[in-house]
């Protein structure tokens, strides 16, 4: 079982859109995938299956060991794609985790799923908290949307420093460009020299596109909603790089 996370300390940069699209693209290749929405705002539900979705369950039962993680999973939202929806109690995750200093609770929670699940995709909230520290520690790779602006680059560099300081494994961070608007000089300038500016290769540049916003309204991954759109093409590129990162194929 491989575990990937979509994370940035910056809000509204495209983490959830990418997490849902990657989980869906994985499931289409017969990879048994679990998407876990760790953000109490619960946006992933909307992108994945629209407003009719899927109520989450209170976290305390899971953390107290009273309910196994399987009880929190909605099976086959799409074929090969299971989903753990968020619940407003997820905002208390950090308080709960404080009592488990030095012990990766998330990793233990996911362990029973390892036989049936090939890929876990974690959609993280935009906070730098105990929860995100645990995610950064246990994920095989962490994908970080970077909008091509100086502020976003700054956040990226801060994240790298943080991961390095805490010895969480800075080789696991994978940036990709998000919400790219090539009409803007600054965006073009930054896109022209990604390796220099980010200190890492960048394998996809998702354009700013209203069709991505429509994922939330229609409740569908982009591959279903608009597979021929330039944004869908970039998400597929990102998926190919994820697959290479995880399975070298
Ligand atoms: N490439 C894009 N083009 C246009 N709009 C986008 C794009 N990606 C995301 N959006 C829109 O921007 C908003 C934020 O996107 P998303 O929820 O994916 O970001 P996030 O980083 O997960 O946000 P949060 O930090 O709140 O969890 C949403 O309304 C979404 O529809
Ligand atoms: Mg989000």
UniProtKB/TrEMBL annotation:
Residues 1-167 form the AAA domain. It holds the Pfam family AAA_31. InterPro entries: AAA_dom, DNA_Partitioning_ATPase, P-loop_NTPase. CDD domains: ParAB_family (cd02042). Gene3D superfamilies: P-loop containing nucleotide triphosphate hydrolases. This is Chromosome partitioning protein.
